Fold this protein.
Amino acid sequence: MLSNNNWKNLEEIIEKNNKFIITTHINPDGDGIGSELGIFHILKKLGKKSLIINDSPTPEFYKFLDPKNELIKQYEKKYREKLLEADVFFLIDISNFERLGRISKIVKNSSAVKVVIDHHHSNSGWGDVNIIDESASASGEIVYDLANRLGIKIDNALANYLYVAIFTDTGSFRFSNTNKKAHFICGELIEKGINPREIYGNVYESYSWERMILFAKVLSTLKKTAEGKVSSIHITKEMMKSSNAKREDIEGFIEYITAIKDVEIAVLFLELPKNKVKVSLRSRSKYDINQVAEMFGGGGHKNASGITMQNYTLQEAEKLVLSRLEKLFV
Ligand code: AMP
Ligand code: MN
Ligand code: MN
């Protein structure tokens, strides 16, 4: 689905306005962070000042993209005015308002122009200007197109941002969204001087000890459903606390249990405060788990989706989602 692809409007909006806020979804990933830094960089080259404000902190393993800690701000009350004054919001890699976290209300009620740049299947086109390309491997691919359309030279900094966006969202070029264009763009970025080995090391060879301590506990919860077609793990609040892990330490756990032989769908249940449960779903190939996620109010892509379940205990959420998934295999 290519919904309301308003490139032209976007060029005009950038030209006419001056107060730009850029943001991405809660618990941001490499695509969110890389793409928003990409937009920031493009606007800067066009002589426009902008501010990146996210709900959640930047994970440690993406901090090398903002080494002086000066580009990405985490939302605090002092930024409220800035958000209220904005002319334009760039909302990157987000399929709905809720995933904006604490700034969602301000954005929702704002009369500023909302520019949504995304590649999620479940994105309904909730912005005023929507550049949504489901065939894009990452939002970073769309930002690359934007740079080219606007005649922005891709220098080393921009190349680094966009490479991180694409290489992380494709699972280092192995998920089903990996395509010719992703490889082509990353080839171009290598030509601009980025170092794939170094970037890989920065992102994926920088695990915290807390992560590994948590992972040992989490693996002991591994469960098989639907005769081994579904694998699942869970993380309780207590496990998070006793291992002193951060939310970002969980990233990638689900990929291990997706790789078990004959598993079609993998699920991770994360117990959150206030009776919420975050469910992550991965499908190896043929099953469209975005459809399953949407049944529970979540969304994402065909092979990677998420749900935030409200008013469920961990056990209830597990029972409900796993029994729904079992039905796919009868
Ligand atoms: P995650 O399991 O959090 O890594 O997310 C997998 C995919 O599903 C990502 O593309 C997310 O953007 C999307 N996603 C995760 N949680 C939600 C949610 N609560 N609502 C809609 N989409 C989600
Ligand atoms: Mn994302
Ligand atoms: Mn993405």
Q: What stands out?
A: Residues 4-204 form a domain with the inorganic pyrophosphatase (n-terminal core) fold (CATH 3.90.1640.10). The longest strand covers residues 265-272.
